[in-house]
Structures are given as C-alpha cells and as structure tokens.
Amino acid sequence: MDHPASVFIMVLPSPLMDLFILRHGKAGTSDPRDPGDSERHLTRQGRKEIAEIGAWMRAQQLKFPIIASSPLPRAAETAALIARVLGEPKEVTSWDELATGYPPAAVLGKIAEIMHENRVLLVGHEPQLSSLISLLISNRHDCGIVLKKGAIARIRFPGEPGRGELLWLLPPRLIRGPGGPKE
Predict the structure, then answer these.
(1) Measuring CA to CA, how many Å separate 153 from each of 11, 21, 32, 35, 43?
(2) Residue ranges of domains in the chain, CATH in brackets
(3) Neighbours of 15 (CB within 10 A)
(4) Is 29's pLDDT higher than 70?
(5) 70 φ/ψ angles, rounded to the nearest 5 degrees
(6) The sheet that has 165-170: what strands, in order across it?
C-alpha cells in the first residue's frame, strides 16, 4: 500500500520570558540643595523591607539568571540586596535604560537581547516601570498601573509588546505581611 508523502511542519513556540519588575525600596527624600535625585540611597527602613521581599522571593524559590538594575544608587542597592538574599546571580547587571528619563521602548530593546532567558528581574523607578508594564501587556503607555516602592509585578512575555500577560502585581505590604501570597 502506497502512502502519500507526508509533510510535517514543526511550529516552534516563541520563547516566553517571565519578567519580574521591581521598584526600588524606600529612599531618602530629595533635597533641592543636593546634586539631585540621582544620588539618593535606600534608607534603613528601605533596606529592611527589600531584605524581607528578597526573603519572600527565596521562599517562593524564585531564581534569576539575570538581575538588571538602573545604575542609580537606590535601585542598584535594591538589586544587590535581592541578589545577596537569593544567592544569585553573583553580579547585578546595570542598564542605563532602567534609569529615570529613558523611555520604556529603550528597555524593550535590552529585553530583546536576552529573550533566551526564562526569568529576569528588572529593578528601576516610577513612572517608567508602570509605563513599561503597560507597554508589555497592552502596547500602550498608561493602563493605570502604579508600582509602590518595593512592589513587584510578574509578566509572562512572548517578546512582542502588547502580548504580555500580567500574572500578578503585588504591593510590598502583601509580600512582607505574614503568609504573603504564594507564586
């Protein structure tokens, strides 16, 4: 019995990345006499709260091959604390594109370079992070999302703006509270 030649077309799934987007912890207040907002560091309370958020991440067994941070001190300190609590990665990557003043599209360009990773943590500032989340899930810059200091969002991202799925967005009080949410 003759069988016609079969043609199989293999459709490879597009890579999916789970992007975790964290706003830096509480930082000192800006003073007009200071060189500017870019020099603010985490407060003692901010460091304590970020360490608690890192402990929650560890309890959820979250691991990140890449943690990318704004180079500004409050974000870099936040990322370093999280990396230390999680025990990885050994080094936090600094992205200028996560600093204040850069458009979310610039961050998308950096994300495109690392789409082969399945989990990435980005640490930065408002209003850029809320705009980035909006762009990822709706291809618009304002969906009414606001990240409080220490809040974290998880987005499953297929690499195309507007196609991301917001899995959760947690304010810091839910993460740090007793019995915080599970992954």
Answers:
(1) 30, 5, 32, 31, 22
(2) 17-27+49-176 (3.40.50.1240)
(3) 12
(4) yes
(5) -60, 150
(6) 93-94, 66-69, 119-124, 17-23, 152-157, 165-170
